[in-house]
Amino acid sequence: MPAKKLKEFLDANGIKYVTIAHSVAYTAQEIASIAHIPGKELAKTVMVKLDGKMAMAVLPASHIVDLDLLREAAGVDDIQLAQEYEFKSLFPDCETGAMPPFGNLYGLPVFAAKVLREDDEIAFSAGSHKELIRVKYADFERLVQPTVVALAAQHVTAGA
Length: 160
What we know:
Blueprint (H helix, E strand, L loop, with lengths): L3 H9 L5 E4 L6 H8 L6 E9 L2 E8 L2 E3 L1 H8 L4 E3 L2 H4 L22 E4 L7 E5 L5 E6 H8 L2 E3 L2 E3 L6
Parallel strand pairs: 2-7, 3-6, 6-9
Antiparallel strand pairs: 1-8, 2-3, 2-5, 4-10, 7-8
């Protein structure tokens, strides 16, 4: 079942969404493969520290965060990837590493990759390692009001 806070928020705002169950998976690319969703349509949440303050970077599973681009876009001096132990307690209703990209529900700023706008819909972890939610990208952007910036580079895998 999706994180209660997320489900209630989507329902309260009249958002149409689909819940997709899948076998347990931990990496965004693995989830995309198991759920048969193109990596560019699966939004992953990467936790970062911007000048020591926690924030979410949301980007396609097929991309990697470009920390220099994000640092520049956020107007900060220091940026670091956050460690799980640093943010785990911020998401009490979610499995560690499976938090949805709705920082507004957790008091966190959200930076979304511009490239996410290229698709009508996005899917993302629903608070567990075995469930996704798919919504219209426009609904995500309207509800979360992320700062939309260039923050991702296409990830090239071996043999690609």
